[in-house]
Design brief:
The protein has 410 residues and is of the alpha/beta class. Helix content is 44%, strand content 14%. The strands form four sheets. Strands 3-2-1-4-7-8 form a six-stranded parallel β-sheet, with helices on both faces. Strand 1, helix 2 and strand 2 form a beta-alpha-beta unit. Bound molecules: nicotinamide-adenine-dinucleotide (NAD). Nicotinamide-adenine-dinucleotide binds next to helix 2 and helix 6.
């Protein structure tokens, strides 16, 4: 066998369900060495990927697809993809259902059931964030052992980068099932061999502990955001300089200077829903802090709305210009973004809202509010411009801008 035949023979077959931030970054990472088939229910995403175009905004994914050489195909035909796979990575949405106070895991279930039906010898690896205890209960309900859970820690916009340089790789299995524990080790090796960071810590643990790692990690991040936001609320109300306080506090090496920049609240797809899910998991366990993390975010957005109205002088007849609906400067979506909740509060108080969001293209209205994507007209029509994150374009109208982005970074 020559080298190329050798390489082809060592390629493993992996299917990935869901071509969002999580699924697509893993698909691209693994397709550098293995045969990967990505599955989605969105025909447009499948079509784009098959044409070598990334369906999400991510520099590294775009570059990897443009460079070519990946063993990657996309399909709407889940059955076909799962039938041939050794591992099926499940990276589909788990939105928080406010009515039953829990993640809606029905899409994950649908995928795992189909894998079990068409290919019971495969292993399903859940990458979607799920409630603590979910994987064990799904294994029991389906009477199928081959389900692992591996938490995902990437950031949107740097999804592939974060998987190439992971802070850690964690794979959870049934601790009483030596065969599945071995498969967990094998899957962790697959991820590790695709990474560019050589010394990635790899942890193997029970699937329930792995699920807890994900929710406790995100709740800690939300806690930290909330802490510096409440510090800022205090400083604003007492007329103090937040920046000086944060600089002084964070020079303590135990606290550290990272992830301490005030904002309108934590947001994005994961932190709001993951904190609520952890709180739901506490159900019969005493706590005060976890609930406070959830409630603090509402209090922060109330304060921000009050502060904006105070700056306007009068809510009636004034116009607030909303500079970007995204959470971060480089984001391509505004799922659960804090500024949208602030806008809702302002709208409820009779403030006129004008939105500037270039990713909306030519549309004139969003969420019932007028959109003005010509920056000069937008700035001229706004009495106060609010921005969750500072961008250089705002320098021209600095005097009108209200932001809490004191360090000009995420
Ligand atoms: N976005 C993040 O930063 C992040 C980080 C860690 C974990 N997670 C978790 O990973 C999961 C996925 O998140 P995401 O941001 O990648 O979601 P996403 O919304 O970007 O992508 C999900 C994809 O799944 C597709 N899909 C829906 N139903 C499907 C089905 N039955 N079969 C195949 N595909 C289907 C959707 O069309 C979409 O393309 C969620 O549970 C999330 O909480 C997300």
């Amino acid at each position: 066998m020559d080298n190329r035949t050798n390489e082809a023979a060592s390629r493993r077959r992996i299917a990935v369900a869901g071509m969002g931030y999580v699924g697509l970054s893993l698909a691209v990472l693994l397709a550098r060495r293995h045969e990967v088939c990505a599955v989605d229910v969105a025909a447009e995403r499948v079509d784009k990927l098959n044409r070598g175009i990334s369906p999400i905004a991510d520099r590294e994914i775009e570059a990897a697809l443009a460079a070519g050489g990946l063993h990657l195909t996309a399909t709407l035909d889940a059955g076909r993809a799962y039938r041939d796979a050794e591992y099926v990575i499940v990276a589909v949405p788990t939105n928080y259902d406010e009515r039953c106070n829990h993640f809606d895991t029905s899409i994950v279930e649908g995928v795992v059931e189909e894998v079990m039906r068409v290919n019971p010898g495969a292993v399903a690896v859940i990458k979607s964030t799920v409630p603590v205890g979910y994987t064990a209960s799904l294994r029991a309900r389906l009477g199928w052992r081959n389900i692992l859970f591996s938490p995902e820690f990437l950031r949107e916009g740097r999804a592939l980068y974060d998987n190439l340089h992971p802070s850690r790789i964690i794979v959870g299995a049934d601790r009483d099932d030596p065969e599945m524990a071995e498969r967990a080790g094998d899957f962790a090796e697959l991820l590790k061999s695709g990474a560019e960071r050589a010394d990635v810590p790899v942890l193997r643990m029970g699937s329930t502990e792995a699920e807890a790692v994900k929710l406790f990690a995100n709740t800690y991040l939300a806690l930290r955001v909330s802490y510096f936001n409440e510090l800022d609320t205090y400083a604003e109300q007492k007329g103090l300089d937040t920046r000086s306080i944060i600089d002084g506090v964070c020079l303590d090496p135990r606290i550290g200077g990272q992830y301490n920049n005030p904002s309108f609240g934590y947001g994005g797809y994961c932190l709001p829903k993951d904190t609520k899910q952890l709180l739901a998991n506490y159900d019969d366990v005493p706590q005060r802090l976890i609930r406070a993390v959830v409630e603090s975010n509402d209090a922060r957005k109330d304060h921000i709305a009050d502060e904006i109205v105070r700056r306007l002088g009068s809510a009636e007849g004034s116009t607030v210009g909303v500079y970007r609906l995204t959470m971060k400067a480089n984001s391509d979506n505004f799922r659960q973004s804090a500024i949208r909740d602030v806008v809702e509060r302002l709208g409820g108080r009779g403030v006129r809202v004008l939105i500037h969001e270039p990713t909306l293209g030519g549309i004139r209205e969003f969420d019932g509010y007028r959109v003005e994507n010509d920056f000069a007209r937008f700035a001229a029509d706004s009495d106060v411009i609010i921005a969750n994150r500072w961008e250089p374009a705002l320098s021209q109208v600095r005097g009108k801008v209200y932001t809490r982005d004191l360090f000009e970074r995420d």
